[in-house]
Amino acid sequence: MLNRRILRVKAFKVLYAYAENQDLSLKEALSGLDASCEATRDLYLYMMAVVPALTAEAARRIEAARGKFNPTEEDLHPNLKFVRNGISALLEQDPDFTRLLEKKKISWANNDALLSALWETLKTRDYFLKYMKEETSSLQEDARLWQRIFQEEFEDNEALQAILEDSSIFWADELPYVLGTCIRSLEEMGRTGRWNLPPLYQSEILAAQGKSVDSDRDFVRKLVTAAYGRYGEYSKLVAESVSKWDQDRLYTTDIVLIVLGLTEAETFPEIPVKVSINEYVEISKYYSTPKSRGFVNGLLDRLIKEKGLL
């Protein structure tokens, strides 16, 4: 599930916390790192749980319409295709899925306002109306509908973002990545008729396929551990590499990214240096200033060359 890009982001956040508070011990940092990794899969479970939750919301709305004082013909004879979708049924009947939700106390029960708004929005979408008009029904078709819902309705949903920020400090900016994982799970469910919990690290997926790969968990923990040990030396090197005037304008985010890049180049010589540099430049686009991309790229490249790591 977690690839090296997102693991580098998590390493960046841990080291940034240390840069801001150097009383944070390595043990605490590694514990926080593990919690952050597990929280990403919890967010995946939370988003997958919206499938039965939204389906139940639609069923409740249909029943409420039937009970109106003067129900219309449509109220009395509703189209039940969506509320009978096979993807929701698979998840509701999967003991591993329901057990995990219960164990982790993951539920949409307190977010009925968002579910109601989602249902109202969904009923107006052309792709949903087309799905409802099709007389045939299949698990693959249901899976395609849910994939489209995950693609269209969640990433820019401000109400959902507010819920995620309130629910976990780790969830705020991981929704786009998790949605991609959900979409792949939905595609697999449509194809195989079953749900499987994704392994936490992408290396576990590749190892299960018989491929010889290094552990992603070991990679990120080793990276953070080495960066902790090198932070004082490398942050000083960064400061000394710019003019005194520029020293006052250094951003902690940029220092942390360059320290991580130097650490990775030294600790993992098997990873091409250009790959490492590009990874931290990409991260700078989202977590630092507009000028950081060029600064991180140029200084990290120069320092790696000066240390003979290229």
The average pLDDT value, as a whole number, equals 94
Order of SSEs, N→C?
HHHHHHHHHHHHHHHHH
C-alpha end-to-end distance = 30 Å
Estimate percent helicity: over 70%
Counting helices, strands and paired strands, the structural category is mainly alpha
Per DSSP E runs of 2 or more residues, the count of β-strands stands at 0
Overall shape: it is elongated
**Which regions contain 5 or more consecutive residues with pLDDT less than 50?**
none
Strand content: under 5%
Question: Roughly how many Å is the radius of gyration?
Answer: 24 Å
Largest sheet: none
Topology:
Elements (H helix, E strand, L loop, with lengths): L3 H17 L5 H23 L1 H17 L6 H4 L9 H8 L1 H9 L8 H11 L3 H8 L5 H14 L5 H10 L7 H18 L9 H7 L7 H25 L3 H4 L4 H16 L5 H15 L4 H15 L4
